[in-house]
Each structure stands twice: as structure tokens, then as C-alpha cells.
């Protein structure tokens, strides 16, 4: 039994969750772990001097729990409740992949935490220009809600900081343009993962 761990990281509102869900429908034995499920409760998240809750930093997340969840999945993916139903588009590409299990981990801060970096087979990073990201973010409802100035004062600067850190330290990351259509992004990542599956089978 083989496992393939795929990171789908990048900017807030870049389309990570949508892409992960669509890939899950197309890939065999596929599961998703979402970083958003590991946020600390609001009471444990630090507030800065401007009154902003610092959600867009590693300290706002139970990262060790996240690593543990991924490792547990890797140990026994078959018992994780992955449904091995017939895929919508079973094609020659996917024959003989019954014994390969795929985990897609999606989140905004995946590649800046060292213990996670030992686990990836493939890493993708969605980007968006500032204006488009701000526009999309303004249409979403968050719990707790974004306070005025939060995007410019905290969210975007933290994204840039972590992205710069990533570019300095990490290799083998596939950057994806989040302004492209969902179909284009899906097609690109899907065909790339199929190549990885073929390598695993060889």
C-alpha cells in the first residue's frame, strides 16, 4: 500500500478548498485534511496593539495536532473512512491505483512549518494579486468577522511575509495562478498528480 501526500497551500481566498474538493471527486482513494480545522479557539489567539486578532500566523493553529493527524492517516489510510467508490471518470490513467491512497492537505500556511515539510510528495501554492484577493475576501463571511483594516493590517502582510520566507527556503513548489479558471487549475493539478501516481506504480 502506497500513500501520496499533496499540499495545496497559498493565499487566502485563492481557491484551495474548491480545488481540493474537485480533485477528491476525480482521484482514487482520496481524502482531505483542512488546516482551518486546526485553528485555536478565539480566546487563545493573540491580539496585537491595534486590536487585530492574529489569525494568519502559525501560533494561531494547533500545528502539532495537524502533523499528528496527517501521520495517523499515513499509517492507516484505509481505515480513515476513504470511500473507494467507482470514480466518475475511471480512465486508463487510474487503473492499478487501487493500492495507492491520496491525501490532499489544504491550507494557507502549510510550508513554513518544518515538521510538515518532511511529509509532502507534491506541493502547490496558489497566488492572487492584492486587489483580487482583497475583493474576494470582502465577499466572504468569517467567524469572527474581519474588522475594518484587518486585511491590509494583518492578512496581506502575513501572506507576503510567509511567501517570501517560502521562496527563500523551499524548492519543488508548483506555483499556481489563482486568477485562472477553476477548470484550468483543476486540469493542471490533476494531470500532475496522475504523473506522480504513475511514478509510484513504477
From TrEMBL:
Keyword Cytoplasm on entry: no
Listed Gene3D superfamilies: P-loop containing nucleotide triphosphate hydrolases
CDD domains: NRK1
One cellular component (GO) term of this entry: cytosol
Matches recorded under SUPFAM superfamilies: P-loop containing nucleoside triphosphate hydrolases
GO BP terms: NAD+ metabolic process; pyridine nucleotide biosynthetic process
Keywords from the UniProt entry: ATP-binding, Kinase, Magnesium, Metal-binding, Nucleotide-binding, Pyridine nucleotide biosynthesis, Transferase
Keyword Nucleotide-binding found: yes
Family note: Belongs to the uridine kinase family. NRK subfamily.
The protein, known as: Nicotinamide riboside kinase 1
Native species: Fulmarus glacialis (Northern fulmar)
Amino acid at each position: 500500500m502506497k500513500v501520496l501526500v499533496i499540499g495545496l497551500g497559498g493565499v487566502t481566498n485563492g481557491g484551495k478548498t474548491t480545488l481540493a474538493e474537485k480533485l477528491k471527486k476525480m482521484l482514487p482513494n482520496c481524502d482531505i485534511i483542512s488546516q482551518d480545522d486546526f485553528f485555536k479557539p478565539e480566546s487563545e489567539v493573540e491580539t496585537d496593539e491595534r486590536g487585530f486578532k492574529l489569525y494568519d500566523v502559525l501560533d494561531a493553529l494547533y500545528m502539532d495536532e495537524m502533523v499528528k493527524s496527517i501521520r495517523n492517516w499515513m499509517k492507516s489510510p484505509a481505515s480513515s473512512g476513504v470511500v473507494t467508490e467507482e470514480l466518475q471518470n475511471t480512465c486508463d490513467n487510474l487503473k492499478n491505483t487501487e493500492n495507492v491512497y491520496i491525501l490532499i492537505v489544504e491550507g494557507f500556511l502549510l510550508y513554513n512549518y518544518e515538521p510538515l515539510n518532511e511529509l509532502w510528495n507534491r506541493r502547490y501554492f496558489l497566488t492572487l494579486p492584492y486587489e483580487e484577493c482583497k475583493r474576494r475576501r470582502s465577499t466572504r463571511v468569517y467567524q469572527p468577522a474581519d474588522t475594518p483594516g484587518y486585511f491590509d493590517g494583518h492578512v496581506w502582510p502575513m501572506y507576503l511575509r510567509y511567501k517570501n520566507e517560502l521562496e527563500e527556503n523551499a524548492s519543488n513548489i508548483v506555483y499556481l495562478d489563482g486568477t485562472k479558471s477553476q477548470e484550468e487549475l483543476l486540469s493542471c493539478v490533476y494531470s500532475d498528480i496522475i504523473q506522480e501516481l504513475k511514478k509510484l506504480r513504477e
